[in-house]
Amino acid sequence: MSNRSEARTWLPLCLFCAAIALGEASKAADPGHTAIDRRVAAVRDLMVHLERSHRLLVLTCWPPNLRYKLWQTITSELASATSIQFGAVEARHLPWHDRNQHQVVVLVDLACPHTDHLLQSAAHLLYYRVRWIVLHSNTTSAMGFPQGWKNCTEYAFLDRLPLLYSNELFYFCTDPATAREPEGRRLLATSTRRQNFNQFQLRASIVMLHNETLNHLDDLHNSLIYLNYQLTKSIAMALNATVRFTFVDSWGYRDPETDRYNGMIGELQSDLADLGGTALFFTSDRITVIDYLSMTTPTVVNFVFRAPKLSFTDNVFVLPFQKSVWYCTISFIILAGVLLTVVLRTEQRYAIGSGSENAGPRARLSDALLNVFGTTCQQGSFIEPKTTSSRCLILLCLVVLMFLYASYSANIVALIQSPSTKIQTLDDLLTSRLKAGAEDTVYNRYYFQHQTEPIRKALYERKIRNKDGTENFLPLAQGVEAIRQGYYAFHVEVGVCYKLISETFQEEEKCGLQELEYLKMIDPYYAVRKNSSFREPVRVTLFKLREFGIQGRENALLYTKKPRCIGGSSFVPVSIVDVWPALVTLGWGYLLTISLLIFELLWVRLRGKLLPTDAYFQQ
Question: Are 276 and 530 a contacting pair, CB within 8 Å?
């Protein structure tokens, strides 16, 4: 319960005058019967005014005949709208865990013993969701029947209860000056009836990440702070209230040892603030200490990066053709080499006018394959065809492989200039060669350092935290500049990042921007203290601000959408990254060549030792 003056402000009390509103309920001759009818009539007439179906929970010491009369009246006149349940005057009968608390109306009589203790034990149920009917009948007759209601000035005990703004407590008393409610009129919802706080001061807590933000509360310097700061002022204006702001350096995170929160949530938990003036993410551990009201800020915190070159994630030298084309090309080379070997050997065997000394060395398959491979690479043919068949075969190879070479070369040029779309998940980012960092904010540090999901934890340990123990938490401007330089993923609030990108990037640099979700959070919520009496008025006001377009207008001013790629991609020069697969192939080729050379030298020396000199030279 709050100790503020709000606890002594009787805004929510609805005083019904028994003498006027209920005096004509019945006029039987028996005074005892009249008193009983008055109690029943009071409850019946009030239940008629309530706008929706309810469950009446009667916690009184009334005798069985009076309870039966109440049950008979309620079930007969309000059978379709209200159910009734009786219980002892004990706190355990209160609807602590009823999922339909908003439909419960609790009836108590201050004339019954222990009712005062029951009301004190009700805690937040007294001012949150549950409606109360409080009677205080005067037992002055010899028979113990009520002879009337207490005077409306005699509510000293009720004045000690937490009667806050959200209470719906109906207290029956005698006050001849009270006007009678018109017949047939129903009570509107509390949040609808009580929209005037009469300049009551609300307390709002604002998260301030940088001291310089104090000088930019009314401009567009910091979107998250500015938007909710303006919405909080709009809430106070709509409710005819004033607001006092306090500033903290964190949204608030739980201390496992004390189970207390720091920052903004800590102020709400300790009743130092009524409103959480900065939107915050929805997490299950915070549900027990705050109430989430409405999504006010379309904040998205993602990894933002420029799509790297295709050669950065793939081997562009194998991408021009599909696998089936590669298989056909290799098959063609092998088939052409075999046919060329057969044709050359046939030439040598049936050469006309050639002696054995002019026939030359016998054609081998390896020579034919090497010749076709050289033709594939447009290096020409070192074999001189002598017959029409061999010339036709070599000519066919030249033509076919020329088209393949032209197609391959054209695709290579296009692929080197193309951005990669392979990084689509956090796993892709983890295995890629992109560097990563995050904006230096409290929530980024908390969520990165407390991740338990394997991929997210590995991303923090391998990309964010360096081997020397430092961490890549950067200021906004430095992180955006790293994005512009390329090959860098920066975890940042997207709207703020895109605003700075629109102001600092060249048009061609705005192309290829990509995002990756890391936190998996829905839009941030506006929050208040748990079971706050201001919960419903503030929530309804936030919905109105959204429906009237005020919230949308502020969002449009603050949040920049993803920049459009207007200028197109500029020419990107070829770098080592682009030709790296070719260099690797060349290196392995050199290594294989040297290895074969060494093997041949060793083989020659070994054969020279094993065979006689004359036999060796004859070989």
Answer: no
